[in-house]
Amino acid sequence: MKQKFPLPLVVGVLSALGAGLALLFVTRKKSKHIAERPPRKAPQLHIENPGTQDEFPKPPMESEIG
């Protein structure tokens, strides 16, 4: 005679396997991404002088506040 497994047990085991495989896939992807070097033509910024800050909004002046 064949032994039948209860449905919740089968679902639980399959869910655990699926979650484990998904976790393994995600962690391997992240570790590969971290290990990659930046592209050769990536812009290089000087830390001491990063350049203009025009893209950042300026704070309002005292007369503009009130």
Quick take:
The chain is an all-alpha fold. 50% of the residues lie in helices and 0% in strands.
Describe the structure.
- The chain has 66 residues and is an all-alpha fold.
- The chain has a domain at 9-34.
- The chain is built from two helices and no strands.
- The protein has helices at 7-35, 62-65.
- The longest helix has 29 residues, at 7-35.
- The N and C termini lie far apart (87 Å).
- The model has no long low-confidence stretch (mean pLDDT 77).
- The chain crosses the membrane at residues 6-27.
- Residues 32-66 are annotated as: Disordered.
- Keywords: Membrane, Transmembrane, Transmembrane helix.
Q: Number of DSSP helices?
A: 2
What portion of residues belong to β-strands?
Answer: under 5%
- Judged by helices, strands and strand pairing, the structural class is mainly alpha
Q: Alpha-carbon distance between the termini?
A: 87 Å
Shape: elongated
**Major sheet description:** none
Q: How much helical structure, as a percent, in the residues?
A: 40-55%
- Which series of helices and strands comes N to C? HH
Radius of gyration: 27 Å
Transmembrane segments: 6-27
Keywords: Membrane, Transmembrane, Transmembrane helix
Region (Disordered): 32-66
Features:
0% strand; 2 helices; 66 residues; mainly alpha
Q: How are the SSEs ordered, and which strands pair?
A:
Elements: H1 7-35, H2 62-65
